[in-house]
Structures are given as structure tokens and as C-alpha cells.
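Side project, low priority. Logging it here so it doesn't get lost.
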Amino acid sequence: MSNVGTGEGRVPAGAPQHDVGAEDDGLKVGPPKEWAAGVPGIVHAMEPTLRGMGPARTAKLLLRMNHKHGFDCMSCAWPDPDRRKPAEFCENGAKAVAWEASTLTVDQGFWREHSLTELAGRSEYWLGQQGRLVDPVYKAADSDHYAPVSWEEAFRIVGQHLAALDSPDEASFYTSGRTSNEAAFAYQLFARAFGTNNLPDCSNMCHESTGSALGEVIGVGKSTVTYDDFARADLIIIMGQNPGTNHPRMLTALEEAKHAGAQIVAINPLPEAGLMRYKNPQTPRGIVGRGTALADQFVQVRLGGDMALLQAVSKRVLDAEARHPGDVLDHDFIDTYTTGLDAFASSLADLDEDEVLAATGVASAEIDELADRYLTAQRVIVTWAMGLTQHKKAVPTIKEIVNLLLLRGNIGRPGAGASPIRGHSNVQGDRTMGIWEQMPDAFLDALDAEFGTSVPREHGLDAVGTIDAMRDGRIRTFVSLGGNLVSAISDTAVAERAIARTGLSVQISTKLNRSHTITGREALILPCLGRTEIDRQASGEQFVSVEDTVCAVHASRGSVEPSGPNLLSEVTIVARIARAAADARRERGADAHDLDAVDWEGFERDYDVVRDHIAAVVPGCEDYNAKIRRESGFVLPHGPRDSRTFPTSDGKAHLTVNALEHVACPPGRLLLQTVRAHDQFNTTIYSRNDRYRGVKGGRDVIFVHPDDVADLGLRDGQQVDVHSEFEDGVDRVLPGLRVVAYPTARGCAAAYFPEANVLVPLGAVAEQSNTPVSKAVVVRLEPAEVPAPA
């Protein structure tokens, strides 16, 4: 990853490269695994927790994690079953707790010892291993070091910078999915009362394509299933998703579905151990037996071929209806609840099978088998993740999922539906609470009615738009409530230079990451409480709430003492920034009416105050304080799921026509996708291992099919430089990766996120959703120049 500077901010020219290469000196590669979890899952879960927290703290936290009176996992957004097991967590959830609740802290001497020039050369893994942030720190414009600062001074600095802007739209307020509902609601209210809708968030880079597609065709951009639906399904189709690493508790739900008689189909370019066989570590079969074989069929689709595959299956369904009129399609459902069938059927009548086979890399017989499974199942769930959402044609691909489901009435039926799996704990709740640059006028009208404000209506900037505006000097102050935008966004070099052009960058965080080292001319780190920690305010101990991937909302209560006495909660930090911005505006003689209209002190003192306002503003959250205190929380209303009511423009679900287009790959090139390692959550690196893929001690690898390795004139283990090829002609390169011969789809390759983000230009985005395209990237591999021995 490059570290090129412009001289205008915190990225000095000539700063050192990341030290990943030095850390990867011990890289070893073995064969990939054919099953997931089991005894190794227990060992790998407990080792970091015991080492980082000790036995007593480990037991206290893990036994309260995801329980009804405990705290919600800060990792993935997988829902909780109503009946909880004693150990209701997975290996990676345990690692997330150990990472957050570590007893190691960053002391004030750390900032004297380490300059930002040095820290900018450190890897994500090294940064995350330094411990919890416990004191606010400030980097002055003429300094290469952060230094401790009082909370009062930190808030004054933020307020002064915000008040000095020529327009509120010169600020952008980013949000991570780990933020609670209460903090998210306060944060979006502050940004809008300040005067801008610049509210980018991590959804912009993951499931924005899902929201765009589902919102258009069924009226709600969320999952149409509940947790219990998985055990009721006849068929579960899993697309572009690796649950064994990214949401491992899903494997238990899939095992339960298998035992109830469901078939499972995995559609993915990479074979994933978790979908081959699962050894549930909480059952005897998972400890001493062979576990449960999950996928009945593995369709190894070529990158970018999912839309063609879905259209081919839908065409086979329509052809079956033509052979047996009235016996295949759910005509009662289609006639009552949908529109567009005739146009959809006509569009597929001449679907070119040869084009489908070229796009998918899948044989006709395999597509026939998948279609037969769909046709014989009465209740079908299609579930997907970022393997589908980060393509240029992601939105129409997801529309094709809905097309397939609608043909046989598989929405609004128990055991059936569309199931996007959100990757971050409360990313869906953030959106419900208003964290979106394009919230509808009805939501904004409700804010104004509740608070007496006049919030702006013009849409704001998303994540890509924010980086673009920083690069052009149009964003001068950047505030991040959690997250690691510099690493998470595409076009790493551009993102780093863009952040460096801001006057002030503010990170509200629990641990160090890359975004703390690439800063504006001035910078602040404001350390906050984690989800594991007890939150005490003037009215007593507080709890927060989160929403999971199936629209269930529940409380989360911290269990251990804070890592340091100087930590503040997210709600407190947001409230005090808002008050500081209002004070600074008044000092300048400017209007602060909208900021003053909110009882920020009340928000901080008692989170029930926040929830009362949520109840008045957010649809489905009426009586929020009462409902969130129920033992299992509550489920937000969802028209398509609950009553087959579709809040679209015409009140119908839409079958849509989508032009088939697959990515052309020139000879001698490969299609690259970014993936996460098993010991990783988003940009957080827990270790340099990827156990299920056979990689240990390093991340500088690229997975390539053995036949492609040979055809390209390369060899397994060879060092290569990876160059991406886009129409802009810029030569973007990720140097020094080791080729790993791996059973991926032919013509495809995979490398790790976030390192491979350097290969994707900022302007390469999905149509309609503006999500960075990190899948099906055309690349060429060139032998790396090996330095001569010293």
C-alpha cells in the first residue's frame, strides 16, 4: 500500500512503507481445510481471550455475550436465537471481545515514543495490538506527534473548526456499524442540526447495493426472513458469502436447517471450509464425530457470473411453467402482489445459453441441478453478502434474486425470503436511526417536528463522495464515529492524500488503526467506551440497543469496568461535540438555533431521553423504551415479510428486466476479488493467519487456480506484483505477493482486503449504489523483482 504525500497534511513525502513484509517473513502455506470449527475452533477462541483478558474476565464476558441481559457481540450482525446456549458466541466473536476488552492500554509515553511518520509505516495488525486507547490526544498542525489533551480542550478544538467552516457542507461525519442506535441517532441529529446531510457510513462500502435493489423492487432494503425461517426452509441458496469466517454462528443455524430436512447450495468462486462440513463445538458430533456436511451442491461460479446464473435458473423455471401450465409459478401470488412478469419472461425468452456458460464458467448440467432443487422446494431462502454487492452490476444482480424468489411466491412465506447478511454488528441499526446521506423527507420532517429544527433536505455525500470532496478541498473537517475509512475505502493512495488535505480529522475510537496515522493538518483521537464496558452516567448505569440482520432490536449492557477512568461513551462524545459547536458558533455571532434546540445534556445524562425521541421520529420504534426492555427486545415491522405489503410506488413487488453483462477478461489476465482472512474482522487483523485456507504467518498472498498458474508461466510460491487494469490507464500495483495454487474458479484470483484496495480506483463503483467495486477486478501478474542480497 502506498504512502505518498502531498505536503498538505499528515502524509509526508518519503514516509516508510507498511511493515507487512517484515511481519510476513514467517509465511507458510499448506492445504486448505475441508471443515470448520470443532476442537480447533474452541482452542483458537480461548487462547487470545485468556492471554489478553485472563480467566476471570474471559469467563465473565463470554458467558454474557449475546445473552438477553448481557452485551451484543461487536462483530457480525447475525441474529440471536430465542433459546440461547450457555456459550452463545463463535471463535471470531471471542476474538473481537479479546481485542476490545484487552487489559493492555496505550499510555501517554506511547505518543512521545512514536511519531506519526513511524506509525504511518506500521501495519494494521501492529497498530491493533498496541492496546486500548484511554486518553484523548491531539496532533497540532506543526507536530509529528500526538500529545495528551484534556477533554475540554479537545471539544473546544472540534467546535472551533466546525464553526470556522464557510458552509456546514464542508464537514463530513462518517460512522461505523459498531455504533449503538442511541449514539447513531444522536450523531445524525447533530450533523443535520449543524446543517449537513454528509453522513457517509460503512454501508456505502458493503450492502448499499442490497438496499438500492431491495428498496426499489420490494420497498424495504432489509432481510425478509427471521432467524426461525432458516429451520423452516426446504432450500437455502448461499451466494457470495463465507459464513465460516464472517459470521460463524450462521453455521449452527444451517446445521439446524439440515437436520430439519433443508437442502443447501453454495454459490461462490472459492470453496469455503465452513460450507463443506461443520463440526459444531457445542455438540458431541462436533467434538468427536465427523460433524455435518452442509452444502448439497457447490456451484463454483466465475467472478461476475452471478447475474447470468440467476437468469438461467429463472429461465428454466419459466420453461417448466410452459411445459406444465399452472403447476410451477405461484400465479395467485404473482397476480395479487407483483407486476412485470410478462416483460421479465419476454426478456429471458432468448437468453443465450452459451453466453451464460461463458459468464458463469458453470456447466449446463449444474444449472439444471440447481433449477431442479429450486422447483422441488416449497420454501426457499436466498442469502448473500459482499461477494454479490461489490460488483459493477451488483444492484441488477440482487434484483435477479428477487425475480427468482417472486416466481414461486418465496417472499412473505414462513421459511422463505431474501436474506442479505450484514457484516457489522449494528450497521443496519445505524441506517434505521438515520445514518444515511439520502434519508427521505418523511424522516427529516419528523426530526423537525420533534425538535423544532429546520434540517437540510439536499442529499449529502456518501463514502466515495466524501473522499472525492476531500481530494478537491471541499471537505475541510472530517469526524469519524468508529471505523477505519482510510483502509476500508478503495484507491488507498488517493484516500490517504485526500484525508491529508483536511484541516482537522477526528477519530472516535477504542483501538488504533490506519486512519489514526493518516491525518488532517490537525487531528484528534477521542477514546470511547466499548460495548463490553459499563456505562455510568448521571442517572445511573446505561444500556444501549442494536438491530441485527433480521430487523430484531435488543438491548446491550456492558459487563466490566472501563479500561481507563478517562473514557467517555459515544453518546457523551457526540453530545459534547454538538454543544461545543453551538458555543463556537455563538462566539462568532452566528446562528446556533438548531443545535440549541436539542437537549444534549439530557441525551448524555439518561439514554431513555434519546430513546423517547427515537420513538417519536423513527417508524416502527413507537414505545421504544418499553419495547427495548422486553427480555428479547422486539422486531421492527416489515411489510413484505409480515403481510406481503410492498411499500413501492404502486404497492406491488416488481419483477424487473436487467440486461445481462459479464466482465470480459483479456487473455493473460485474471479476475480478482478481495477476501477477508479467518483471523480478521473488516479491517481489524487479529493475527496473520488464515487457518481454513492454509495460510499461516502472513497476508502477502494471491490465490490462483493451479491451471492458471501454469498457463501464466508462473509457479506456486513465486513472488509477483499484481497490476490492475482500468480504463483510466493508471498503473495501480500491489507488489510482492506470493502465488498460492488454490482451487478457486478458473480465470479468477483472490487477495486480502484491505491491502488489495490499492488496486481499485475511487471511480470504480457499482451502478446506482456507488459501492466500490472490489470484485471481478481485471489484473495481470508480473514476476516481482527480487532485491539482490546486500
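Brief comment: The CA atoms of residues 416 and 785 lie 53 Å apart.
Revisit when time allows.
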